[in-house]
Design a protein that fits this description.
5-stranded mixed sheet; Bit1; globular; alpha+beta; 7 strands; 5 helices
């Protein structure tokens, strides 16, 4: 049975390149799915009438929203909520070596980071209220 009491919302800046949008969504979804773990799925798979096994998808709604502005204020609100979250920054695309990325990130203030997207997992109604001003990605 699916759980509609919680949701995953992924907020992505509208002004980035299409490949950056998909990269941002992919990394955010992978991080949240990994952290949510076993409770992400209601079971291992579905089996078709002819015996083909298909893996199940997330039991939680996953909503992708767009933002026209910088995401620093949204990140501050999400951090206050205490919910599971991840911020995906442009440096994560630019620097493929985590050791170098760590040096870069630790040398900058949060306000200097270019946040491309934020993923949030938490109670459905509360996450909806945090993201209410944002529009569905179209």
């Amino acid at each position: 049975m699916q759980d509609f009491t919680q949701r995953i919302s992924i907020v992505v800046r509208r002004d980035i390149e299409p490949w950056q949008v998909t990269n941002t969504i992919g990394h955010i979804a992978a991080y949240l799915g990994n952290k949510i773990g076993d409770k992400l799925l209601t079971g291992e798979s579905f089996t078709t009438k002819d015996g083909v096994t298909l893996p199940r998808n997330s039991q939680y709604p996953i909503i992708v929203l767009s933002a026209d502005e910088k995401l620093h204020s949204l990140l501050a609100e999400v951090q206050k909520s205490g919910f599971l979250y991840v911020a995906y920054i442009k440096n994560m695309i630019d620097e493929i070596d985590d050791a170098k990325l760590e040096v870069t990130v630790t040398s900058l203030d949060l306000s200097d980071l270019d946040i491309l997207g934020i993923g949030i997992f938490g109670p459905n109604e509360t996450v909806k209220s945090i993201t209410k001003p944002l529009k569905l990605w179209k």
